[in-house]
Design a protein that fits this description.
Number of domains of chain B: 4
Number of strands of chain B: 12
Shape of chain A: globular
Helix content of chain B: 55-70%
Number of strands of chain A: 12
Number of domains of chain A: 2
Largest interface: A-B, 34 and 37 residues
Order of helices and strands of chain B: HHHHHHEEHEEEHHEHHEEHEEHEEH
Largest sheet of chain B: 5 strands, antiparallel
Distance between the termini of chain B: 89 Å
Shape of chain B: elongated
CATH architecture of the largest domain in chain A: 3-Layer(aba) Sandwich
Radius of gyration of chain B: 44 Å
CATH class of the largest domain in chain A: Alpha Beta
Radius of gyration of chain A: 18 Å
Strand content of chain B: 5-15%
CATH superfamily of the largest domain in chain B: Histidine kinase-like ATPase, C-terminal domain
Oligomer: heterodimer
Order of helices and strands of chain A: EHEHEHEHEHEEEEHEHHEE
Chain lengths: 229, 522
């Protein structure tokens, strides 16, 4: 156990929420830095160089979106947004401003840990660049082959491309726009119907019940997420 | 408008016959005696003088019958000398020796006068009856048309049109705005709308509740249309000929016309007030219902949370690990319930205040269903959910976030009101113009007659039950579906429980450029 546990910067103005998040995260062996406003938070990014940031959207001094914008000018630090359900639109704005994922309040700590793990995994590039496996799904990224329970599934080039983008962000949300831009090019950034059709096809090939997906989850109004164990 | 002194005058339209007919009448009055003379001349040896006089009388009578008094008097006055000259002894002289003939002539003149008077009266009666009938019909037509109007603008259109049809006058109906200032109508003027109105005059009529007219004859009149003390509108009207004041019957008719219009305006005015009142009452009772529902439904989980939390704090050391876990679960579940509830209340408030804007895009039904089921994974607790979504379903143009909420609410209801472990079916089908989504369960179904009431705000299956909820879920569903131009209804399915059907309007999805889409990866 020579590895230093990751340092997490928590920007949240509500002390109670901060307390429960802190105790839960420390329980997992992570180190915590706290800030109760955006300015202090951004200063801590400079001074302490954390591995990950948890950012609440509603802060007293500046809103989360501005924090995101300021942060992205200087750092690639992975950021997880915490938002209330009434802040749907802000959530999307924050993602557009460079946040990596979000969690809607109220949430369970299990969910929080899974997201943080996914973020750290991607930041450390521990996602295997050759083979991706979760549940019954196995994807050979080098030979472009997809397997379900060991049986190969034929996918079209576009379907594979979609899948590989989701794998690159495994466990994290990928916005509609990002997928459209990466697969079809920026001129198709608003053609959401492309995505619907291809995601539908992919689900029919990979999921046992496409209407109750296990891997290719929909983040309604935002994008898609590849679920990982 | 009604001036008693003018009431006794004969109505304008009867005072004179049309000019052409009048001239023709006098021509006939002139000609008839000569015609009678020509007829009588060959018969003078056969007929007695009295009979000859009768023929003249017949002529006069016919003229009276056809052309009225003036012509008949002319005929009788002309007949007299002709008879005296040609037939009454001494012949070829205007002198009459026979007393009998003088009496005959006198009688003829009197009879001619009397009959023509009678004729005139009969004609007058007939004309009046005809006029009355046509006016009654006009009033009937007006009231029919007014009965169908639903707002002031429609009343204005109907009024202006009928006034033009009936009086040949251009008019316009002016209403006051909230500040009590008369304003020009916003609607497109009709071909017979009066345009040259003076708002200052109209305003005076409105304020003083008195008819206003400028001295010069052709300027429009401004009639205040009044209900008890309130002026509802001002009718500006410009008659083609001189004013209608000189014809009391026409004037009275116009009054009736206006009062019909006024009554309609009053009806609308009162209906508006009644609507405002019910709306106010509704909002009031809605607010009360909301408050009591919220206080009940928020208090219940709050009680449980604080109970569990204080147990943990006070006697946490004595609790077993398992008990602690249970208490923690209670807190978590109740907190979740409160969170759901508050977001429902928030959504409802935002929807009903029109604050929510639909972010519509092309979406797959399967994805929305999947999203809802993923969100409810915990609540479903291994209940069988059977989905039947044909692959041929087109994409739908919807706000995915809101529609997912609808499905979540419907599935939650099914979970809440059916026995644990009983299946839930979700299906979609393609109808001619809509895509229908059905969520059905195997519970007891919806109580009869409640299929509509379910969707009311704050409706609850039973007033006080263990199953909590403010009764906002279905109201929210309806609001969302209707905002999409769709419809939602509830029914019971034979051999099953309740079924909720959402019909979403179908739109032509954009074409998918397959070649381009697929070649982009090459």
């Amino acid at each position: 156990m020579s590895e230093i546990p990751p340092l997490i910067l928590l920007i949240e103005d509500d002390p109670q929420t901060r307390r429960f998040l802190k105790s839960s995260l420390m329980h997992r062996g992570w180190r915590i830095l706290e800030a109760d406003n955006g300015k202090t938070g951004l200063a801590l990014v400079h001074s302490d160089n954390p591995d990950l940031m948890i950012l609440d959207l509603g802060l007293p001094d500046m809103d989360g979106i501005s924090v995101m914008k300021k942060l992205r000018q200087v750092s690639d630090l992975p950021v997880l947004i915490l938002s209330a359900r009434s802040q749907e639109q802000n959530k999307i704005l924050a993602l557009d401003a460079g946040a990596d994922d979000y969690l809607t309040k109220p949430f369970g700590t299990g969910e929080l840990h899974a997201r943080l793990q996914a973020l750290l995994r991607r930041a450390k590039r521990t996602v295997s660049s050759e083979v991706f496996e979760t549940g019954e799904l196995k994807v050979d990224l080098v030979n472009r082959k997809v397997f379900i329970s060991g049986n190969e599934v034929r996918v079209t080039p576009i379907e594979f491309r979609l899948l590989s983008i989701l794998i690159r962000h495994a466990g994290l949300v990928v916005k509609h726009h990002e997928l459209l831009k990466e697969v079809w090019g920026s001129e198709h950034i608003n053609d959401q119907h492309y995505l619907r059709i291809y995601m539908g096809q992919l689900r029919h090939k990979l999921e046992i019940n496409p209407a109750r997906p296990r891997y290719l989850l929909t983040e309604v109004g935002v994008g898609y997420r590849l679920a990982v164990d | 408008m009604q001036n008693p002194s003018t009431l006794k005058k004969r109505p304008t339209f009867l005072r004179k016959l049309p000019r052409g007919r009048e001239l023709r009448g006098y021509a006939w009055g002139m000609a008839a005696p000569f015609v009678c003379t020509l007829i009588n001349w060959p018969l003078q040896n056969i007929l007695g003088e009295a009979s000859i006089l009768m023929i003249y009388l017949l002529g006069v009578f016919l003229v009276a019958n056809h052309f009225g008094r003036g012509a008949s008097i002319l005929a009788s006055l002309l007949s007299a000398p002709l008879f005296a000259f040609y037939f009454a002894r001494p012949i070829f002289s205007l002198a009459i020796s026979d007393l009998e003939n003088i009496v005959g002539l006198g009688v003829m003149i009197v009879v001619a006068n009397l009959t023509s008077n009678l004729q005139d009266k009969a004609r007058l009666q007939a004309e009046l009856a005809r006029q009355r009938e046509s006016r009654t019909k006009a009033l009937y037509r007006l009231s029919q048309a007014l009965a169908e109007t639903g707002n002031q603008e429609n009343v204005a259109v109907v009024a202006v049109q009928h006034i033009h049809d009936q009086f040949g006058a251009m008019s316009v109906l002016l209403f006051a705005d909230e500040q009590g200032r008369l304003v020009y109508p916003e609607a497109e003027p009709l071909p017979f709308s009066l345009r040259a109105t003076d708002l200052a005059d109209a305003q005076r009529a409105f304020k003083l509740a008195k008819v206003q007219q400028r001295r010069n004859g052709c300027a429009p009149f401004y009639y205040p249309l009044m209900r008890s003390q309130t002026v509802l509108a001002v009718l500006a009207i410009s008659f083609k000929a001189s004013s209608i004041d000189s014809d009391p019957q026409l004037s009275a008719f116009f009054d009736t016309f206006c009062s019909l219009i006024t009554q309609t305006l009053e009806r609308l005015y009162l209906a508006g007030q009644a609507k405002d009142a019910t709306l106010q009452a509704e909002t009031e009772s809605l607010r009360n219902a909301l408050l009591s529902a919220i206080s009940h439904d928020l208090r219940t989980p709050l009680t449980r949370i604080s109970g569990a939390a204080s147990t943990l704090i006070e006697s946490g050391s004595e609790c077993s690990e398992e008990e602690k876990q249970d208490l923690g679960k209670v807190i978590l579940e109740e907190a979740q319930r409160m969170s759901d509830l508050t977001s429902k209340i928030l959504n409802m408030a935002r929807l009903s205040s029109g604050e929510i804007i639909l972010h519509q895009d092309w979406n797959a039904v399967e994805e929305i269903v999947g999203g809802a089921l993923t969100r409810l994974d915990k609540n479903l607790q291994g209940r069988p959910v059977r989905t039947q979504l044909p692959g041929s379903l087109p994409l739908v143009w919807i706000d995915a976030v809101l529609l997912e909420q609808v499905l979540v609410n419907l599935i939650e209801n099914a979970i809440k009101y059916t026995p644990p472990g009983s299946p839930i079916d979700i299906s979609a089908e393609l109808l001619p113009a809509t895509v229908r989504l059905t969520v059905s369960d195997y519970g007891d179904g919806i109580p009869k007659g409640m299929e509509e009431k379910l969707f009311d705000k704050f409706y609850r299956h039973e007033t006080e039950t263990q199953t909590s909820g403010v009764g906002l879920g279905l109201a929210l569903c309806r609001a969302i579906v209707e905002a999409h131009g769709g419809a939602i209804k509830a029914t019971n399915l034979a051999g099953k429980g309740a079924a909720f059907m959402i019909d979403l309007p179908m739109r032509e999805p954009p074409s998918l450029n397959w070649d381009k889409a697929e070649s982009a990866t090459a």
